[in-house]
């Protein structure tokens, strides 16, 4: 069974369980493998083999430990990474999809919208629209600070200059 592009329509809470919260070392190992290899095609068989469990036993144990089946957990990791890439790079949505190990754009867009409330393109556009406002507010605050303190600095400078003339 392949975890890549499972077609699951549910991407629940994005807060994936941190590795430390999983008590069973086999589940922690599978989570680490997912985090290190989210961009690759991962199969339940490979993951189960890596911890010497059957696929059924891994799925059962994993869900009991994390609250999510392995495929959903992996999808959450991929969505988080996609969000990070959309926020911090200029990669196209297609490039982001490939970088996070997915290939079906329509499923990706649906899952991303379900997870973050907007399509990847709109999500990125809204970030860019917020950025100029944040930059303008920061620039305004800096200009106000400089304007308020400029006369005092000029006064100190002119006082020092007057002291040296004598």
Architecture blueprint of SSEs:
Elements: H1 25-37, H2 44-50, H3 55-66, H4 70-88, H5 93-99, H6 105-116, H7 120-165
Write structural notes for this entry:
This protein is mainly alpha-helical and 166 residues long. It has 7 helices and no strands. It has helices at 25-37, 44-50, 55-66, 70-88, 93-99, 105-116, 120-165. The chain starts with 24 loop residues before the first helix and ends with a helix. Mean pLDDT is 81; it is low at 4-20.
Silhouette? elongated
Proportion of helical residues: 55-70%
Please indicate the percent range of residues in DSSP E strands (runs of 2 or more). Answer: under 5%
Low-confidence stretches are 4-20
For the sheet with most strands, the description reads: none
Briefly characterize the structure.
The protein has 166 residues and is mostly helical. It contains seven helices and no strands.
What labels would you give this structure?
elongated, 166 residues, 7 helices, mainly alpha, single chain
């Amino acid at each position: 069974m392949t975890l890549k592009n499972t077609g699951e329509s549910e991407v629940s809470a994005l807060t994936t369980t941190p590795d430390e919260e999983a008590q069973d070392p086999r589940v922690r190992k599978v989570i680490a493998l997912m985090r290190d290899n989210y961009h690759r095609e991962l199969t339940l068989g490979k993951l189960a083999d890596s911890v010497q469990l059957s696929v059924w036993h891994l799925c059962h144990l994993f869900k009991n430990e994390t609250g999510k089946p392995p495929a959903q957990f992996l999808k959450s990791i991929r969505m988080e990474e996609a969000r990070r890439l959309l926020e911090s790079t200029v990669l196209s949505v297609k490039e982001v999809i490939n970088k996070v190990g997915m290939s079906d754009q329509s499923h990706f867009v649906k899952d991303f919208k379900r997870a973050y409330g907007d399509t990847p393109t709109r999500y990125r556009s809204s970030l860019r629209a917020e950025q100029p406002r944040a930059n303008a507010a920061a620039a305004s605050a800096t200009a106000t600070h400089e304007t308020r303190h400029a006369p005092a600095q000029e006064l100190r400078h002119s006082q020092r200059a007057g002291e040296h003339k004598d």
